[in-house]
Structures are given as structure tokens and as C-alpha cells.
Design a protein that fits this description.
heterodimer, A: four-stranded mixed beta sheet, 8% strand, B: four-stranded mixed beta sheet
Chain lengths: 379, 386
């Protein structure tokens, strides 16, 4: 046991001196997580703002009602910035130059049509490069249209010329930005952390192959050190580096980027089981490879393929069916699921399911590794 | 030509290693499959909770489900729905309170909770939900007014309101393009997903191939070539040609595969081809620069991942440029990805041609030129310094 700890200690010290270890384990994921944080911060924090154009060809009470009821509350809350355009042509130019996400066109005779109960059409000019903004503009127009509809129907029903504006019985409350489950910044922070874990744990296990090439492994085995201790020492290195890197990332992204990882105990459980699973998989590849280069190549392939399948780069779950099922064959997917479960504010028990799945991976890969470990730790 | 001979030797060495065959051919095909399956979904999916409560609730959800491009799924409890939205199994969720019908009949207000992902599908669904709700709103509001004024029971008033509603035309809201043509929006996720992921993959793959140039240096091949009457520029041209060939082949596999198997629209063929070639040149240039500057494989892998993933994220290849705040979108143009994404946006979204994307192509070629010049300078210094 002492031999294993000594080997692990020496390896960790060696890796810390080697700058590329720090780069891969901490700097890289942190930089990438910051980039995602920068991108998603404003969207998640609800600070998105759209620039809309308004072409008022009606100049009547209906147009003023549109501005007052539909646009002004949104302008006050900062969601919308309204630019009054002189004509449809200038609004079109604004959209093509990408100054506007969309433009409302209130047709001439709108007020008269509303008053006389004739068909009314509100036009929204959309910007193909601003899909979200265009849809939001359509929503705004639709809401306003809905109020006119209610007013007209009430008037028709009661036989009066103009009904009072009835209160809306049904309201929609958009709680997207307050729902922690949708925090993309946290998701990507966790995704990058678990993706780079594959490279971090290589420093332990795969170094056996490098030592074999360098000749130090033979010398180690000549000493009164059991090959199991060497193997255990290398494993410990992987585990130590992996857990340290994930912990630093979790803390850094939490304090620096405001990522919400969830209940600390739950996160700790996920980190430990995740590192164990990834270490076992990396060790499996190392035992199957013949040279260090081959092992590194296969491990990079595994990192990318499992990372993609597990959903670290783009959402695979929405594919449903076979692909979503396949993604569950990766430890990355289970780790991210665990983080999502915890992000909703759940207690540590929410992490137990994914943790068990990852331990299953570790057990399956680990059993093969232990059978072949004798062959691995050989000169 | 000497450069071609150098390129050919390089490629032969590359292909002798079986792992590279995976990277070169199988991985792009895997990516197409993943992308097609993930993004090839055409309709917007919405999850709903609490629509079985009463007649009005069921009618609301029926109207939502009736939408052509909407796929409605029912969930038993709110946490299940929240998880489904978070896991991307549906694009948005709508929660109806259990006493929906009772509250409406009593004259009280009802608040529906809506939550969606920050993408255009969720916003599209929001508009659909608003339409359906607006419809019920006008019926219920009118029915209440009638019930109050004429002292009839609510259900009778509602029936009357429904009958009259058929004769009162609702306000139409029409979303068009700036010139009045139909709005080409939500044209399938995959069309945008394919081009952005193509850029991510090509750049990342090219950069990780920088390790090969390092090997060439380490084995002494580079020095031996330069000891013959071969200029550094020719040697580098050979390296660039080899890598460019690989990148172009990978891009071809992805574009052709997604076009044939999933019917992805890549826009004007000539424009797309030029943008793809220009971007491959940038990736190649960056890879050769990396291979000239660094001296250890670990460093190259680390920097390749950092630049490959970092640029992709900053440049709009992971989250679309559209949701970037204004300043971030300007900063994004530090990366070649942002320019290429802009070009694809013009080609695919606006039906542009080569002429429309010439500025973007120019920018990409500029990136490539800078990378290659620096690579030549650096390699010459490294190899002749001893």
C-alpha cells in the first residue's frame, strides 16, 4: 500500500510540474466554461432586448392603443426597443441592415375597421436572421389582436356598438428564466468538465505505457514492488487528479461564473463516481492498446465519441428513440443527468440513480481491467 | 511538383495508421448520423400538464394539438415536465392549474405557467399557445359579460358566445419576410445545425492533426527535406496540401451525406463550395502553425482542444449567433467560425450566391494567409536554429 501511495505521490508531483497537465485539467475547461457563461449569461438572466420597428399608417386610436397597451409596458421593462419608422420601405431597410429584429405594420384604416367590425390584419415583417425576435414580435401582435377579438365578441353578443374592454380571464406567465433546470451555462460547464475528465485521467493510467517505453517500468518492477502496487499507484493518480480537477472546476464556475451545480453532497457523489467510471474506461483502453501512442489515440477517439453521444456538445436527448438510448451508454450522459436532477434544487438522493449507473460502468470496465492488469504492468 | 510529392508521402504515412482512418472517414459519418437524428425533427414539441381537468381545459389542449407543426405530449406532474424540457425531449412546457374550469366558471382569473428553452422553437410555440389562449379568452370573457348582463347561466352564455364567435372574424396576424414574401423561419433545425457543426468538426479535426507535423519534425524528416534544395515554403506547401486534402474530404463527406440522407439544404452550390474551401484553408493554416510552434504532443492536444472548442463556441457553432448579445456578437468575429457562420446564414437562410458572401470569404482567406505566413516564419526559425 505504501508503495502505491509513493508512486501516486511522485506521479502527481510530476504532473503538476508539467504545465500541460494543469492546462488540460483546469485552464481549458475553465476558459471554455467562461465562454459559454459569457454567451448564455444575458439570455438566461432575462436581459435579452429586441429592436422592433413600428410603421403607423393608421394614425388613429387603434394605433395609439397598440403602442400604449402592447409596446410601452415592454419598453419600460427593457425587453423591447421601439424605433418609429416613417415608411414600410425604411422598416424593410432596417431589417435588411440587421438593425431591427422585426417591424410592425399597422395598416391604414385600422381604427375604422376595428370600430366597424370589419376584418383586420396586422402585419409583422420578420428578420430571417432574428428568428427569436421575429416570433416574439408575432406574439406581441397576437396578444393585442386577442384583446380586440374579445372586445368585438362581447360587443356582438350584447348587441352594443362598442363593448368595454373585458378583463382577460386567462393569463400566461412565462417562467422560463427562473427555472434553474434550463440553466445552459451550468449544463455546458458540467459538459466541458466531464469531457476533459477523459484527458485528465490519462495522466495516471496511460503513463504506465509511457513508462514502459521509457524503461522506468522495468526498473520499478525489479524493485521489491508488487505489480499490483504499481497499478494501484497509477490508478490513485488518475483518481486524485480527476477529483481535484472536477472540484476546482465546480468551485471556479460556481464563484466566478455563477453556475449552479446544486446540492454539494450530491455533486460530490457525482464527481467521485464519475471520475471512477471514466478512470475505469480509460484503463480499459490502456490495457487493450499495445503502445502509448495507440492508447492516446483511442482515448481521444473515445473522449470525442462518448462526449458527443453523451450530449456534451449538442443535445442528443431530443432525438429520442435509439439515439437517446445509445447516449445512456456513456458515463457523460449520466453525469449530466445527475447535474440536471440536482439543479432543480433536489437533495443528494437525486444523484444516487446516475451515480449507481456510473458505478456500473466502472464495475464492467474494471473487471476486464483487473483481469488484464498483469499484462499491462509488465516490462 | 515537389510540394505534391511531399504531400503524397505525408498522406501515405497518415493512412498507414489505422486510427486515422477512423478520424478521417468514420467520424464524419457518425457526426452526420448524430446530427440528422438530433436535429432532423420538424415539428415543435410542447408538453402539457393538467389538461384533463375539465371541458375547457381539454378544449384548450385540443386546439394546441391541432396545430400543423405542433406535437403535443402529456405529462402527469410538473417535475416530469420540467425534466423533459431540461432534457430537451420537448421544446416548451405549459402547466394548467387543476381547477382551470372551476375558476373560469366562477369568474376568477387563471394563470398558466409557460417555460421554454431560449431558442426559436420555444418562441414559436409561445405564439401558438397565445393564439389558443386568446381564442378561449375571448369566448370566456364574452360569455361572462353576457351571463352578467342577461342573468343566464355560464354554460348557456358560453354556447351562445361560441355560436356568435363563428360570425365574428378574428384579427389576423401575418408574419412575412421584409419584402412581403412568406417568412422562411424554423425551416427545420438541421439546416442551421449542420453548417455550424461542420465548422466545429473541420476546425477541431484539423487542429488535432497538428500533432502529425510535430512527428515529422521529431523524426527528423523535416530537417532532411530542408537539407535538400527545398525551400521552407515548399515544404510547408506540401504539408498544407496534405492536410487540406484531408479536410476537404471530410467536409465533402459531411455535406454530401447530410444532403443525401437528410435532405439538408446547403444553399447555392458554388457559394457553399467556396466558403467550405476557404474555411478548410483556415483550419489547415492554423494546424500547420500549431505544429510549428509547439514541441510536445500534450501541448498540441491541449491547445488544439482550447482553440477548436473555444473558437467554435465563441463563433456561434455551439449556441447560434442569434442569441448572442450585441457586444458578444461583435467579439465573436475574432474567430473564423463567426465569419463562416455568417456566410452560411446568407447562403442558406437568404438564398444568397457567391457574390453575397465575398466579404466573408475574403475574411476567411485573410485568416488563412496570416496563419500560413506565421507558420513559415516560425518553422524556418525552429528548423534552422538547431
Amino acid at each position: 500500500m505504501r508503495a502505491a501511495l509513493l508512486i501516486a505521490g511522485k506521479d502527481v508531483r510530476q504532473r503538476l510540474r508539467d504545465r500541460s497537465a494543469l492546462l488540460l485539467a483546469i485552464v481549458l475547461p475553465l476558459v471554455l466554461a467562461s465562454i459559454f457563461g459569457l454567451i448564455f449569461h444575458d439570455v438566461v438572466g432575462g436581459h435579452v432586448s429586441f429592436a422592433f420597428g413600428l410603421v403607423d399608417r393608421d394614425r388613429g386610436t387603434a394605433a395609439r392603443a397598440f403602442e400604449a397597451q402592447a409596446l410601452r409596458p415592454l419598453e419600460r421593462s427593457g425587453l423591447v426597443v421601439v424605433h418609429r419608422e416613417a415608411s414600410v420601405a425604411s422598416a424593410r431597410r432596417g431589417i435588411e441592415q440587421d438593425r431591427l429584429s422585426a417591424a410592425f405594420v399597422l395598416p391604414p384604416g385600422l381604427t375604422a375597421a376595428v370600430r366597424q367590425g370589419r376584418p383586420v390584419e396586422l402585419r409583422v415583417l420578420g428578420n430571417v436572421d432574428a428568428q427569436i425576435g421575429s416570433q416574439v414580435a408575432r406574439s406581441i401582435a397576437r396578444t393585442f389582436g386577442g384583446r380586440i377579438d374579445a372586445q368585438r365578441l362581447t360587443a356582438a353578443l350584447l348587441g352594443t356598438a362598442r363593448g368595454a374592454v373585458p378583463a382577460e380571464p386567462i393569463a400566461i406567465e412565462d417562467v422560463s428564466t427562473t427555472s434553474r433546470q434550463l440553466d445552459a451555462a451550468t449544463y455546458y460547464a458540467a459538459g466541458m468538465a466531464v469531457f476533459f475528465l477523459f484527458f485528465t485521467v490519462q495522466f495516471g493510467i496511460t503513463s504506465i505505457l509511457a513508462e514502459r517505453r521509457g524503461g522506468t517500468l522495468a526498473r520499478l518492477l525489479v524493485a521489491p514492488v508488487h505489480h499490483a502496487s504499481v497499478f494501484a499507484g497509477k490508478l490513485l493518480t488518475s483518481l486524485a487528479l480527476g477529483i481535484a480537477s472536477m472540484t476546482v472546476l465546480a468551485l471556479a464556475t460556481h464563484f466566478l461564473l455563477g453556475a449552479h451545480w446544486g446540492n454539494p453532497v450530491g455533486v460530490a457523489i457525482l464527481i467521485v463516481t464519475g471520475v471512477v467510471a471514466v478512470t475505469a474506461l480509460t484503463a480499459l483502453i490502456a490495457t487493450l492498446a499495445r503502445t502509448a501512442e495507440q492508447a492516446e489515440a483511442w482515448q481521444t477517439i473515445a473522449a470525442i465519441v462518448l462526449g458527443m453521444l453523451g450530449g456534451a456538445f449538442f443535445p442528443v436527448a431530443q432525438a429520442g428513440g435509439l439515439l437517446a438510448a445509445l447516449s445512456l451508454a456513456t458515463p457523460q450522459a449520466w453525469f449530466l443527468r445527475g447535474i440536471q436532477n440536482l439543479a432543480g434544487g433536489a437533495g443528494p438522493s437525486a444523484a444516487l440513480g446516475p451515480a449507481a449507473a456510473m458505478l456500473l460502468f466502472a464495475a464492467a470496465a474494471g473487471s476486464v481491467v483487473f483481469v488484464r492488469s498483469g499484462r499491462l504492468v509488465a516490462p | 511538383m515537389k510540394a505534391l510529392a511531399i504531400a503524397a508521402t505525408d498522406l501515405r504515412r497518415l493512412l498507414r495508421w489505422r486510427a486515422n482512418i477512423f478520424f478521417l472517414f468514420l467520424l464524419p459519418m457518425l457526426i452526420i448520423l448524430l446530427l440528422g437524428a438530433s436535429f432532423g425533427v420538424d415539428s415543435a414539441r410542447i408538453g402539457i400538464v393538467g389538461d384533463r381537468g375539465g371541458v375547457l381545459a381539454r378544449q384548450l389542449s385540443a386546439e394546441l394539438a391541432a396545430g400543423r407543426a405542433t406535437d403535443l405530449r402529456r405529462y402527469g406532474a410538473v417535475p416530469d415536465l420540467e425534466r423533459a424540457v431540461a432534457r430537451n425531449r420537448v421544446d416548451a412546457g405549459l402547466v394548467l392549474p387543476a381547477d382551470y374550469d372551476a375558476r373560469l366558471r366562477d369568474g376568477r382569473t387563471v394563470t398558466l405557467r409557460y417555460f421554454g428553452r431560449p431558442d426559436s422553437f420555444a418562441q414559436q410555440l409561445r405564439a401558438t399557445v397565445q393564439s389558443a389562449v386568446a381564442d378561449q379568452n375571448r369566448l370566456v370573457a364574452a360569455a361572462r359579460a353576457l351571463a352578467r348582463a342577461r342573468h343566464v347561466p355560464f354554460d348557456a352564455a358560453l354556447a351562445r358566445a361560441r355560436a356568435v364567435a363563428a360570425t365574428v372574424a378574428p384579427v389576423r396576424v401575418v408574419l412575412t419576410g421584409p419584402d412581403g414574401s412568406p417568412f422562411t423561419g424554423g425551416s427545420g433545425r438541421f439546416d442551421r445545425g449542420a453548417s455550424t457543426q461542420l465548422l466545429l468538426f473541420i476546425f477541431l479535426s484539423s487542429l488535432t492533426g497538428a500533432a502529425w507535423l510535430l512527428e515529422t519534425r521529431r523524426l527528423g524528416i523535416a530537417r532532411r527535406i530542408l537539407s535538400t534544395p527545398t525551400s521552407t515554403r515548399t515544404f510547408l506547401a506540401g504539408q498544407v496540401l496534405a492536410r487540406l486534402a484531408v479536410a476537404l474530404l471530410q467536409a465533402l463527406i459531411i455535406v454530401a451525406g447530410s444532403l443525401l440522407f437528410f435532405g439538408v439544404d446547403w444553399g447555392d452550390p458554388l457559394g457553399t463550395a467556396v466558403v467550405v474551401v476557404a474555411f478548410c484553408l483556415v483550419g489547415t493554416g492554423a494546424a500547420v502553425l500549431l505544429g510549428s510552434v509547439f514541441s510536445s504532443e500534450q501541448q498540441i492536444v491541449a491547445v488544439a482542444l482550447l482553440l477548436g472548442l473555444g473558437f467554435a463556441a465563441l463563433g456561434g457553432s455551439m449556441a447560434p449567433l442569434e442569441i448572442f448579445p450585441r457586444t458578444a456578437r461583435t467579439i465573436a468575429h475574432v474567430t473564423p467560425h463567426a465569419w463562416a457562420n455568417d456566410a452560411f446564414s446568407k447562403l442558406i437562410g437568404h438564398g444568397g450566391t457567391l457574390a453575397t458572401v465575398l466579404p466573408q470569404v475574403g475574411a476567411l482567406l485573410g485568416f488563412a494567409a496570416v496563419a500560413l505566413t506565421l507558420a513559415v516564419w516560425r518553422l524556418r526559425r525552429t528548423l534552422t536554429a538547431g
